[in-house]
Amino acid sequence: MSSNETPRGPVDSSRIPRYAGPATFARLPRLDEVGTADVAVVGVPFDSGVSYRPGARFGGNAIREASRLLRPYNPAQDASPFALAQVADGGDIAVNPFNINEAVDTIEAAADDLLGTGARLMTLGGDHTIALPLLRSVAKKHGPVALLHFDAHLDTWDTYFGAEYTHGTPFRRAVEEGILDTSALSHVGTRGPLYGKQDLTDDEKMGFGIVTSADVYRRGADEVADQLRQRIGDRPLYISIDIDCLDPAHAPGTGTPEAGGMTSRELLEILRGLASCNLVSADVVEVAPAYDHAEITSVAASHTAYELTTIMSRQIAAARKDA
Ligand SMILES: N=C(N)NCCCC(=O)O
Ligand SMILES: [Zn+2]
Ligand SMILES: [Zn+2]
């Protein structure tokens, strides 16, 4: 979208019932209807990298369905994200479910194409494997990026059954490949049993700082966001959100649930506290709707993607104003 065009927003839910018609994220136009977008919301229906319950391949469409109730004005950030910038639904990246290496390459190539148009990506997973090719693509454009990783798990393990590309290993691969800025790497929401203490020492050596789920509860969302913001500074930032960062009470529909997680309120508040960061792209992954109830998980994921999209739209609009 050029600066003098008005973005095309969501379908008007006061005229067309919000439950009518095919689902796009937040009832936004499809990317092919608007040509190019400032923020492209894309699904990656891939879950061949999981170590426990499968089903995240259906996550993107579940989030789209649950996003029908999102409204155009976001009071928490005092912004109308879909008026500030063109946000559009780019559909799904069609990936091979039988060949993980090929899938990883396909995701990277599709992300290259979208980022090449000038769009930022709001990706809906899929399992966490997909973060690696997305980070590769983002780093080609911005250089090594700061990473904020919300998850119960570290996802810096080495291999599973000898496999390098899995949902438990994307961030170790990313560090090895030099695509992350190791001075600004944080996990948030970490908890649960590990394979051994070495998991933590390995992770620390890679450069990660950890804000556990209990830290969030004890210190509160504002203080955590302040600390993260200081660490990130003005570096290009990628946010990866595994929905299992939330307690299973807030996100039952996921493949590797762990007790004692954050509330959806804490997650949304931390994100709002990061609104001034230079968010270049983001993902929300690991929504597995078969284990969900009453769309609890996909509603939480849709609101999470909405906050992230709002941050990106505000920054795009602010940059246009300055230019
Ligand atoms: N949910 C993600 N991304 N990773 C979980 C890996 C847990 C494990 O099987 O050890
Ligand atoms: Zn996880
Ligand atoms: Zn994960």
TrEMBL record:
Keyword hit for rRNA-binding: no
SUPFAM superfamilies the UniProt entry points to: Arginase/deacetylase (SSF52768)
One example GO MF annotation: agmatinase activity
Keyword Flavoprotein: no
InterPro entries attached to this UniProt entry: Agmatinase-rel, Ureohydrolase, Ureohydrolase_dom_sf, Ureohydrolase_Mn_BS
Keywords attached to this entry: Hydrolase, Metal-binding
Superkingdom of source: Bacteria
Record Pfam families: Arginase
Top class in the EC scheme: hydrolase
Enzyme Commission number(s) of this protein: 3.5.3.11
NCBIfam families for the chain: agmatinase, PRK02190.1
Family of the protein in this entry: Belongs to the arginase family. Agmatinase subfamily.
Protein name: Agmatinase
